[in-house]
Amino acid sequence: MRGKLYLVSTPIGNLEDITLRALRILKEVDIIFAEDTRYTGQLLYHFQIKKPMQSYHDHNERRQTQTLLQCLEDGKSVALVTDSGTPGICDPGFKAVRAFLEHGGQPEMVPGACALVTALAGSGLATNAFYFGGFLPNKSGGRAKRLQEVAERPETVIFYESPYRVVKTLEAIAKIYGNRRVILARELTKKFEEFLRGTAEELVAHFKGRSPKGEFVILIEGLRPEKNGRE
Which pLDDT score, from 0 to 100, does residue 61 have? Predict the structure, then answer.
């Protein structure tokens, strides 16, 4: 591989969170592979960057991995970005990285915003260790099974969830986790950023009569072992 692959983190909401280095790399590379070229196009337009783009998402990653590798083999410099945050976290970008490594390459990281780290830091829950489970299954049975599998972990447990399923997920958490503390982080870094705190049952009640909006990070307090009958 004669070309260079950059994994470029982009803002998760507030455009001011992009780094100077990320802007420089996006201006310098030959081509950008993006999860959604329309979304990334808005980012590039805001910063007056004009670069050719290719899509790279769950439905075309097999074909596009070969396209990306060919660009690198031809000596081109490539930036890989996701819609928001760090590429490779809960998106197919890790498959491009794996393929590049198998061909003897080593991607260069351009770090920046990440929703799970931002939510964890502002949650007030333990940060010394955590479990990140990505997105929960869509179906209720699979969702409950995953939640049950990690219910006894001592670390803070973190999931991503959409506004369409967050209430059902909270209902499942209430059944499995009882009165443990739960934090919902919503619209991180945006104008309506919000941290909601309480038990899962209390948070379900919060959404009665109102529709959840925005993307959510769910953080659940880890199981604290009792010693001599006391926590």
Answer: 92
Per-residue model confidence (pLDDT) at position 226: 52
CA distances (Å), 213 to each of 184, 192, 207, 226, in order?
12, 10, 10, 37
Q: How far apart are CA 22 and CA 224, in angstroms?
A: 40
Can you name the CATH fold of 5-110?
A: Cobalt-precorrin-4 Transmethylase; domain 1 (3.40.1010)
* CA–CA separation, 226 and 21 (whole Å): 47
CATH 3.30.950.10 in the chain: give the residue spans.
115-220
pTM (predicted TM-score): 0.91
From 14, 34, 19, 21, select the one nearest 115 (Cα to Cα).
14
For residue range 162-208, what is the model confidence (pLDDT) as tens digits? Answer: 999 999 999 999 999 999 999 999 999 999 999 999 999 999 999 99
pLDDT greater than 80 at residue 149: yes
CATH class, domain 115-220, is alpha beta
Q: Who contacts 20 (Cβ-Cβ below 8 Å, separation ≥6)? A: none
CB-based contact 6:80 (threshold 8 Å): yes
In the chain, CATH 3.40.1010.10 covers: 5-110
Q: What are phi and psi of 198, to 5 degrees?
A: 155, -170
Q: Give the N- to C-terminal CA distance of the chain in Å, as an integer.
A: 55
